[in-house]
Design brief:
By secondary structure, the chain is mostly helical. Helix content is 84%, strand content 0%. It is elongated, with a radius of gyration of 15 Å.
């Protein structure tokens, strides 16, 4: 299961690369919007990296809680983006929500283990 955890974390980081490139293309002439969009990319990189750390040594419950809360927030933000563009099932918000949902599942697995 740690392998799946790491794959999802890397996919999230790769999604951040795509988000960064898309942001530069879409908002290159709008510095304020570009700044906020790149801040979301930074969050995705950080969130993916923290999940990679969490996937390492098993049983780190405080880190699992941090990742779970961050994941739920990112799912909410991704779905809200889908609402704003008028299509929650658009590939962009949907893929972020699904990858993050998988990571949240891994967090819950860590939290309920050995209870």
């Amino acid at each position: 299961m740690r392998g799946l955890d790491r794959v999802l974390s890397v996919l999230l980081i790769l999604g951040g690369v795509g988000h960064t490139l898309g942001s530069l293309k879409a908002f290159g002439s709008e510095p304020m919007t570009l700044l906020w969009s790149l801040c979301a990319s930074l969050f995705v990189f950080f969130f993916g990296a923290v999940n990679l750390v969490r996937a390492g040594p098993p049983g780190d419950k405080p880190l699992a809680w941090i990742c779970l809360v961050g994941g739920v927030c990112w799912i909410g933000a991704s779905l809200q983006f889908g609402v704003l563009i008028g299509n929650v099932l658009d590939f962009r918000p949907l893929i972020f929500a699904l990858i993050t949902l998988g990571l949240c599942g891994m967090c819950v697995r860590t939290l309920v283990r050995n209870i």
